[in-house]
């Protein structure tokens, strides 16, 4: 098989970014992130943007789909696919090796399985997302994406505003998804479950002591609602509940730690589902550069 993409996946806290940056440096590559939260600006500690990992021997490895949208704005699977294929085309046209790296199972699966997408599929979920915003923010969003808006009655009723936004988004995105045939050499990083749990807990303690609560406070100061924080999940959801007085610090820590452990299990469930559906994943134990190097040299460049 002739491969044209290298994917590095695995549950949280196994060292995906660090390994991928080393490999991209070695194989003249660029990284496309497959993380549904790292796309948002000002959400660094909670989403685990290990930007220093992209610095390999003093060289910054080109990386994409990190810090591309404001927290008040919306990101979805269709937009991820649109941006991925644009980036993939650019990277390959430069003669470089594209790496898809991350842990969001749905995003990974959509590329590796070649989902056929249209915005129609997102109606129900998109409506729920937009319904979380107040009517003032929705008006501004509609005016921003539809500068030729003539029917002012669309700005008076929240339901009409939401539907007008959804219709405009569909029209804007109707012919934007230019796809490539993807054949990925996919490498999965795995660790013993107890080791992952140990890493998650240690990392959470470090983040709480090094600015993660302050990061969420800053989002609130920037008028990100507690409802919006709930949608971001995990760190933002539980720290938001702590800052709103709904949880004590200890309850927040315990519930958040448990939620991240559960999240890691759900990630592995996604990957097993992908394998059952035909995705071949070459598993390696830990972020072992030499083992990954051998797989890529054998399958990607000699296929």
What is the share of helical residues? 40-55%
How much β-strand is present in the residues? 5-15%
In whole angstroms, the N-to-C terminal distance is: 6 Å
Assigned CATH superfamily of the largest domain: P-loop containing nucleotide triphosphate hydrolases
Rg over CA atoms: 20 Å
Overall structural domain count: 2
Uncertain regions spanning at least 5 consecutive residues? none
CATH architecture of the largest domain: 3-Layer(aba) Sandwich
According to CATH, what is the class of the largest domain?
Answer: Alpha Beta
Major sheet: arrangement of strands:
5-2-6-1-7-8
In N-to-C order, the SSE pattern is: EHEEEEHEHHHHEHHHHHEH
CATH topology of the largest domain: Rossmann fold
> Mean pLDDT score, rounded?
91
Coarse morphology: globular
Number of separate strands: 8
* Total helical segments: 12
The chain-level structural class is alpha/beta
How would you characterize the largest beta sheet? 6 strands, parallel
Protein model, in words:
It is a single chain. The chain has 303 residues and is an alpha/beta fold. It folds into two domains: 5-117 and 177-300, Rossmann fold, CATH 3.40.50; 118-176. 51% of the residues lie in helices and 12% in strands. The chain is built from twelve helices and eight strands. It has helices at residues 16-26, 77-93, 105-112, 123-131, 135-145, 158-173, 193-209, 212-221, 226-232, 234-243, 249-276, 289-300; strands at 5-9, 29-34, 55-56, 59-60, 63-64, 97-102, 184-190, 281-285. The strands form two sheets. The protein has a six-stranded parallel beta sheet with strand order 5-2-6-1-7-8, sandwiched between helices. The protein has a two-stranded antiparallel ribbon with strand order 3-4. Strand 3 (55-56) and strand 4 form a beta hairpin. The longest helix is centred in the C-terminal third of the chain and has 28 residues, at 249-276. The radius of gyration is 20 Å and the shape is globular.
